[in-house]
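batch job 7 of whatever, protein = ABC-2 type transport system ATP-binding protein
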Amino acid sequence: MLEVMHLTKKYRKTLAVDDVSFSVPDGSIGILLGPNGAGKSTIIKSIAGLLRYDGEIRIQNFPGRSPEAKKVFGYVPEIPAMFDALTVAEHLEYIRRAYQSDITDEETGALLARFELEDKKDKLGNELSKGMMQKVSICCALAVKPKVMLFDEPMVGLDPKAIKELKDVIQELSRDGVTILISTHMLEMVKDIWEVMFVMDKGKILASYTREEAAHRDIDELFFTITE
Ligand code: ATP
């Protein structure tokens, strides 16, 4: 379970997130949908413990930014960052040590195989395409064996095949009980996978939906109104 309560974040004079509360149940796929500047990344980065904020965040019942919370979530940033001088395998080893993950060599091998990265494991960070870097970034996040996964605009810049693969991975994780939160400004990309949705604009959640409720409401229309 991921809970965000009265989250408020100000960057100097900009109120990026204004008293936002929501929760994503265990194993569900939650979406933060909103146009550029809505505050989605700020929420994801706050949950990932990268920002100071007001309000309360609980990840698997651990307070946000606590050492316990850090061990139960994985974070895939919008722009995958890799060390130029480390290989793919070394990135995974770095994560294993930094997060004291109990992932075994066999499990690491299976992770690389799942993402078709076995033949890339000796490649350096600066030798990979954006799509490959994103796969490595997801592997690194999964290497901590997370209970909660945070994806910031994960579909941007990916080709249709990579998007399909990513959605498959997200659905597999959800089936395995991992709680997922994805930020996106592209409703089309998540239409077939979402379970709870929070539509945002200007730092606020305008509407929340569950899949069952959405049949009776028109997310398209609301989203069109705020993005036109
Ligand atoms: P995008 O998809 O464009 O990243 P977003 O919904 O993720 O949009 P945020 O990146 O969270 O939105 O930005 C919310 C608001 O906070 C915007 O007005 C943005 O300009 C501002 N903002 C974000 N980061 C900073 C920062 N480091 N310093 C100052 N203002 C910031």
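notes: The pocket of adenosine-5'-triphosphate is lined by residues 11, 14, 16, 34, 36-42, 153, 185 (CB under 6 Å).
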